[in-house]
Input
Amino acid sequence: MQRVRKTVYKHIKRTHKWRQMGHSQLTDLYLSVGIRTTAVSLVGVFIPIYLHQLGYSIADVVVYYTVFAFFRVLINLVTAQYIGWVGPKHAIIASNILAICHMAMLFSLPSIGWPIAVIAMLHTTANSLFFTSYHTDFSKIKTNKDGGKEIGHMMVISKIGRVIGPAVGGLLAGFSDIRVSIAVAAGLLMSSLIPLFFTKEPVKTHQKISYKGLLPKVAAGWRDHTAQFAENIGVVLVGGFWSFYIALAIFSEAPYESIGLISTGATFVSIFTAHLFGVWSDKGGGKTMVRLSGILSAVFAVFRVFISSPVGAISHNAVKEATNPSATIPIVKEFYADADTYPGQRIAYITVIECISAFLRGLVLLPVLILMAYFDQLEVLRLSTVAFGFISCLVVLRRFK
Output
């Protein structure tokens, strides 16, 4: 692990020449996120398929993600206080421990029969700790001038993990059992803790999180927060629900292997575009990039109405994954820049924005559940990816300085 850490450190120092400090923190963050992403991607995309094969309906799976979203709003407020007290690095450690517990619950679900709402709550708590900490950590140690390039580097590291994870997880699940993939993921989550022991906390600890005077300022930026929610919808709900749909409707004979390999192939293509979009963002291309993303989201949404073959599904996923960074990088870059304008309230600001996105995500899932009570659930699932695609066009609302 130390040898890997030194190699990554040398690469960052060579490719991040603008940085005067923080190489070590960036190295350890890159390593930990890379290992964690690999672990989560071994299982993440397969959770809906796994639940469905255990006898849960499509609507039950949507309930899982609805609970995941709404409980996130409440638990964010709790985890923010915890992060403020112990610091983001220690909170990421706690997040990974909870993620291991989540894997254990998934592993034992056939024998114990845990309520899936409880599993969803644990899952979202782990994610809350991780993503609030990650955004706090990265927004603190990144630079403003080359933030897009640094976010691009982080996306490349994450995508390398997502290239490895789905293929390995899918093949293990297909030729053995999905619980083998879950066990391997738990082991990797344990190893992702190691790089974090080499770095210091990037922010002051023992903070009391205060939201005083924050909400009116956040409300004034409603366009930016709507755009961030739309980007989240495009990546999380469209990507997750579409993979679930094609697993059931197109690749039902070998869902794990097919979805795993398709996810890996599409992510591999996007590794190259993430860096290019990062550079373009730093050159002032953010506004053009989100407009491009908005147009493409509408095009992909229309195409999903007609896709019914493996070739169509594979082509759609490859192109969509390759263009996702066109919205993610400039929007996240501006999000981090906005966080810098709230001295002493960075964690509070990030928490509020995370709560807004989670609440709105849960809100758009409610009509899906209602429709599934009256119409064919598979057809509603497909059409929901079309609707979410059009919602993700709202990324064009993002303002740029």
